Amino acid sequence: MLQNFFMLCSGADSTILKSCSEGEQNKYAGIGATVFFTAVMAFIASSYALYTVFDSVVAAVLFGLLWGLLIFNLDRFIVSTIKKRNSFASELLQATPRIVLAVIIAIVIAKPLEMKIFEKEINQVLLEEKNAMTLANKEQLALQYTPAVEKLNQAIADLKAEVAAQEAETNALYDTYITEAEGTAGSMLLGKGPVYAEKREKHDAALAELQQLKEANAMKISGIESQISALEVEYADVVKNSQPIIDGFDGLMARITALEKLPWLPSFFIFLLFLAIETSPIIAKLLAPKGEYDLKLEDEESAIKTWVAQKVHQRKQVLATDTALNEKIYGEIAEEEAVYAHKKRKAEELLKLQADAFQEMQIKSL
């Protein structure tokens, strides 16, 4: 039963193949088994590849099954259409398009399995890329907020500098009226005279202005700090919202790109393995000598070709004979006077009937 199934997978004519020897049947069963297991590998590979795309087991299995059936049908078609000829060059020329197609199929099958085999290494590459993308994303977003924050910080620094300048001026007035009282500067008179009172009054007025300035600038600084805090919260939210996009950077194309960054030699040998599996039925048919099945198939096809050629030739002969007979018969009839007189009489009767009908129509229209 299993042998019959694999012979069916090989695309061979089961009626002819069952009339062949056991060895011939085993050869085609082996070819069919290669076709079948290649389709199984295609199913596994495409299911994994599609799972990385859809992230759904059901969808991946369904599409993988469809792809496996497609590969199975293509391989079966490729193997079944290669006919053994008496010239290896003609056989190779016949198989060349099919070998190219087999190479394409091997690449499609091998790539997803490579991604599964090197999954850990690919994940490491993707992690490094995600970290780099996270840092780059933060820096890029910071460019939108840094100028505004710097401007606000500069405003705070200006307000503090204004307070510091006013405070320095007030301290200078304080030193002035103290030295006036001590007699070490100004009027050089010891004691609290009119000059001292005047300078003390200036200091007290400046001190009051300083206190008002501190309170006003403190309120301004508090408002600016609130704006800075709001910008920092907004920046953090933007970074947080964009992070899932970076975390989701592990789709099929990203994994293929990451795989290309790994050493090429292991991937190349895996590709060669699948290429050998995919092309093995074709190579086996090309290298195998002309067997019993090929001879019987050629005999049956040549018999059909001969029979069809005979039928076509017979139809041509029948057509030629019939044409010659018709020409001879109608030629003899054209020379007979009785036929001529009969056709003339019938034509005269027809013309009379037409004239009568025309006359009746004219009378009715009056």
UniProtKB/TrEMBL annotation:
Origin superkingdom: Bacteria
Record keywords, A-Z: Coiled coil, Membrane, Transmembrane, Transmembrane helix
Transmembrane segment boundaries: 28-51, 57-74, 95-113, 268-288
Coiled-coil portions: 149-216
Protein name (Swiss-Prot/TrEMBL): DUF4407 domain-containing protein
Organism annotation: Aggregatimonas sangjinii
